[in-house]
């Protein structure tokens, strides 16, 4: 029993010493966590900017498509009017 107890003391001491971080280690871990948090915030902001840009381009694309369609429709109407005028000259 005494031998088992003597064997446990060094194991407990080793576990206790390895689980305690020094003040420097705690500060290092805290700084790393803050840096990781900042990177995650930047990632979120980048994602939001990208999504907003994609939505804007999509809206612009729809507006451009509608303008193109209107422009070509107007040109087609003019050509049909010209064709009708040509036929009436017979």
Task: Please give a structural write-up.
With 90 residues, the protein is mainly alpha-helical. It has one domain (23-88). 93% of the residues lie in helices and 0% in strands. The protein contains 2 helices and no strands. The longest helix is centred in the middle third of the chain and has 66 residues, at 23-88. The chain is rod-shaped, with a radius of gyration of 37 Å. The model has no long low-confidence stretch (mean pLDDT 84).
Uncertain segments = none
What is the N-to-C order of secondary-structure elements (H for helix, E for strand)? HH
- Quickly give the structural class: mainly alpha
Proportion of residues in β-strands: under 5%
Rg (CA only): 37 Å
- Structural domains: how many: 1
**Using DSSP, what is the number of strands?**
0
Given the C-alpha coordinates, what overall shape results? Answer: rod-shaped
Note the quaternary state here: single chain
